[in-house]
Amino acid sequence: AVGEQMKAQLFIIPNLNDNRVGKRSELILWDNTRETFSNYGYVTGKIPRRADMERFSTLVALDMQHQYVSSVYDKIYFSIFG
Fold first, then answer.
1. 57: closest CA among 44, 48, 49, 66?
2. What is the pLDDT of residues 30-71, one digit of tens each?
3. Exposed/middle/buried for 16, CB within 10 Å: 0-12, 13-18, 19+?
4. Which of 45, 60, 77, 82 has its Cβ near the most Cβ atoms within 10 Å?
């Protein structure tokens, strides 16, 4: 049946990342959290917090948004479909 063919994968996408925010101890904690999450699924690259990401169109993603997310979504796509 389908259950034997299906292999679920968990992708964790860190977003709203801003390296300018946080003390050194907090940045270390976030890195440790990322490492812990990697035990449960694939942790993608970080998507930065940018004003461009807060702008949106209901029809298409803006070119500026595409540059921030394309590598993350490409990795997910190729992990699933090869």
1. 66
2. 899 999 999 999 999 988 887 777 766 656 667 778 888 889
3. exposed
4. 45
SS3 48: strand
Q: What is the pLDDT of residues 4-34, one digit of tens each?
A: 777 788 999 998 888 788 898 998 998 999 9
The first and second tokens of residue 45, run together, are: 């690259």
Asked if residues 80 and 7 have their Cβ atoms less than 8 Å apart, the reply is no
Predicted TM-score (pTM) of this structure = 0.68
For 53, the token pair is 């990401």
Cα separation, 35 vs 66, in Å, equals 26
Q: Residue 46 in contact with residue 14, Cβ under 8 Å?
A: yes
Ranges of each domain in the chain: 2-81
